[in-house]
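Input record (one chain):
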Amino acid sequence: MEYFLELVLGGLTRGSIYALIALGYTMVYGIIELINFAHGEIYMIGAFTALIFASVLTLLGFNEIAVMVLASLAAVIYSSAYGYTVEKIAYKPLRHASRLSPLISAIGMSIFLQNYVLLAQTSDFLPFPNLIPEFEFIKPYSHIISSPEIVILITTSTAMILLTFLIKFTRTGKAMRATAQDRNMAMLVGINVNRVISITFVIGSALAALGGVLIASHVGQINFYIGFIAGIKAFTAAVLGGIGSIPGAVLGALVLGLTESFATGYVSSDYEDVFAFGLLVLILIFRPAGILGRVTAQKV
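The corresponding structure, as predicted from the sequence alone:
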């Protein structure tokens, strides 16, 4: 039973990280119907930013809590700026172009950011400090769940609640929903669509950076390629849940995380990707719109 609980909690932890990244994919797609393939690299840049700031703050003698909070804050701000810049440079000029052009631009931006970090840092794995202190009350249960896993679950849940509140009850959230429903009509009623799109990229980038800091602290190492793998998994989660649906992105991420965890625990870690993408294939065959996605009719 303890082993089963360990797998469940491990799967929820994985799913929580995938959810933070998948939300960026699904929010951007919901607003402008674009898959931002550079989103995984924003996650990676957030992790590297936290590593640099954590190293400097530790040398300056800051305590563990201060290092964790300040490094995470720096990663969120820096990655949000990157997300904003990427949207302005790579996507905004192609907003009225054919679907293929922004897709190619997104892939190109992903490759550019990967190689930029590769040249600025190194191709080797770098050790990442454990920014999350060990909680005393968890020590008797440390064989089932760890402090980083608790922090990841709490942080992700809090982020989901705040994001839901933002979208449902704030003026910005209403503007985002209106833009997602009909961009041209939103412009006619006075909504600044360009501002809404930029805010969407900033929020998605901030969530991805937060996920990067948490998982890097949990795993203990990073390199320039972690964004590609995490981005593909998060994109899979978004498609599983229903691309464009925020609850769907979270549900798809949790399903994917649990699937990988049980595949690793009961079969082999070599087959976790087989089970994850096999699940995606089944969902696309029997429910192409995703678990919570809506099938929409298109007029011709």
